[in-house]
């Protein structure tokens, strides 16, 4: 069996990173036996022998999380190359199936409980609905598979949730105001609280991410002093780098939540860090599509920057982001970011992650034989394991797995 890193890892450092990531991944798995890791031009090739033919590739999440993300979503990459059934894509949240029906009335009643009160009318085809759902408190994830074309209308204004539509296939036409817009694999649409929704939903598969309304509004108010009603301007998100990050991270996150051995499925800090990052990415995407009238970015004093650093140091163990830091020292997010870059040459988030790298080293140095790089990294909010390994090596002159092996006497 061979795993190939995509050819867009075009420099030696990136290739070395991929090789180290693959080595760490294989070392943490019990079934595969590492045979060789070689670099061929811009491609890293990992060859191994797996004595158990039923061994799933997703048990080596460290390798896939960084390398395969460059080819597209983790789901499509894994399905096309490592699934036992190459033609069948992995189903997000497959462990959380809560509903399946071919009856439109039964499905409408179910959707009224889990989504919004609605009226559904079949326009074309045979009806079918399957719904996977995980409620994580302030954020919820649903993977919806819909099999025909329907007229779908919410009965009354939408409830106090912001909902993100990420299509794997198919399309949905949203009529929430004067101009309809479409969500599909290329366009990401957001519903805001208070919208009046009429829609045409065709045969589709999509991920629906739902955020608590107050949490989103609080995050946006830290970015803008005033902002007009969301339903007046929110719709299709612009295709920015932040949106690409949000889509990639969300695709990885729902698959990781389906893995019972993941730190995200256990009580602990990793899950809090993951939700905080998701909310921050979502708020940044909304901010990029917000109306022009936003807060004036003002510098803050050196004393306030130092206050921010002290607060960060005292709260590193918590799932904090730039929103919590700005709130703690009572300044706007844009002002905090601008002043941090001027004074420290980096963003507040980069400062937080830099401090956490030091904690990661302490944890790796004191770890026992059962510890793993994955668990330690995720407990500190590092979810791109390849980038974590690269930054760690740049700062400490060795990879995380080397530190761990030495401390555990491996």
UniProtKB/TrEMBL annotation:
<keyword id="KW-0804">Transcription</keyword>
<keyword id="KW-0805">Transcription regulation</keyword>
<dbReference type="InterPro" id="IPR009057">
    <property type="entry name" value="Homeodomain-like_sf"/>
</dbReference>
<dbReference type="InterPro" id="IPR050204">
    <property type="entry name" value="AraC_XylS_family_regulators"/>
</dbReference>
<feature type="domain" description="HTH araC/xylS-type">
    <location>
        <begin position="306"/>
        <end position="406"/>
    </location>
</feature>
<dbReference type="Pfam" id="PF12833">
    <property type="entry name" value="HTH_18"/>
</dbReference>
<protein>
    <submittedName>
        <fullName>AraC family transcriptional regulator</fullName>
    </submittedName>
</protein>
<dbReference type="Pfam" id="PF14525">
    <property type="entry name" value="AraC_binding_2"/>
</dbReference>
<dbReference type="InterPro" id="IPR018060">
    <property type="entry name" value="HTH_AraC"/>
</dbReference>
<dbReference type="InterPro" id="IPR018062">
    <property type="entry name" value="HTH_AraC-typ_CS"/>
</dbReference>
<dbReference type="InterPro" id="IPR035418">
    <property type="entry name" value="AraC-bd_2"/>
</dbReference>
<keyword id="KW-0238">DNA-binding</keyword>
